[in-house]
Amino acid sequence: MTPQRTVLITGGNRGIGFSIAEEFVAQGHRVAVTARSGSGPAGALTVIADVTDAASLDAAFTTVEAELGPVEVVVANAGITRDTLLLRMSEDDFTDVIDTNLTGAFRTVKRASKGMLKARFGRIILISSVVGLYGSAGQVNYSASKSALVGMARSLTRELGGRGITANVVAPGFIETDMTAALPEDQQKAYQQSIPAGRFATPLEVARVVTWLASDDAGYISGAVIPVDGGLGMGH
Ligand SMILES: NC(=O)c1ccc[n+]([C@@H]2O[C@H](COP(=O)([O-])OP(=O)(O)OC[C@H]3O[C@@H](n4cnc5c(N)ncnc54)[C@H](OP(=O)(O)O)[C@@H]3O)[C@@H](O)[C@H]2O)c1
Asked: What is the position in ligand 1's atom list of the atom closest to the CA of 81?
């Protein structure tokens, strides 16, 4: 059985992050989420942080360490989209998405690694997306930010793997959250037809994979990209 761990999830006030936090709580772990507003599920500690601001993340980690102990499992989940076609995409549309999804993950992991190196144990889980490797028209910014997480996890694996730390990527397909609800209905239908499973997933279906990756059962898995996409992205 996996011992109880201290877990921190960024962007845990809604969507996939909220569900991941709920699942870790249900499995008996000590759970904290970061939020810019609102709060995580019952049983989780909510700390205010913005992943674009290293100082706010540092303060959030310090609070979590004081209340729950050193962070052993970190889930870099916070993410945004600014979808538009390349010729309409402003440089701010591009750099804002990179700053949150990629540099935000870097800031989170860097801060978490301090305690993990000391403990010689850690689980780093980066929430990417099927479009990171599949590509997507209108998402040059988002897909670039998400594929870069694969290189990050693999370099982390090579750098930290000898210290009992694993780093993996979870690549969800279409999940029922605010992010997909924002898509036009005809686009949602078209996507559903292209997914071999014929449906979107629930956030819980992602959460269960994340908690498994954090468990002792997954201790020898590192640098992997685990798809949770109903078969949409097969072949890479
Ligand atoms: N839904 C999907 O189909 C899908 C598919 C593949 C990958 N993903 C990825 O899964 C992750 C979660 O997505 P979701 O669908 O749950 O999205 P969501 O419902 O839009 O929630 C996004 C979360 O990220 C937080 N966040 C955004 N910018 C932040 C910042 N600068 N600092 C701190 N937190 C920030 C949001 O906080 P606020 O409430 O404060 O905005 C919110 O908690 C994202 O990385 C997304 O790219 C989602």
From this structure: 47
Number of domains in the chain: 1
Would you say the CB of residue 185 lies under 6 angstroms from ligand 1?
no
The CA distance from 205 to 226, in Å, is 12
What CATH number should be reported for the domain holding residue 88?
Answer: 3.40.50.720
Q: Please tell me if the CB atom of residue 127 comes closer than 6 angstroms to any atom of ligand 1.
A: yes
For position 236, what pLDDT does the model report? Answer: 67
Is the minimum distance from the CB of 52 to ligand 1 under 6 angstroms?
yes
Task: Give the integer Cα–Cα distance in Å for 197 and 195.
Answer: 5
Tokens encoding 110:
């860097």
- The residues of the chain scoring below 50 in pLDDT are none
Catalytic (active site) residue 220: no
Asked if 154 and 216 touch (Cβ cutoff 8 Å), the reply is: no
45: β partners: 32
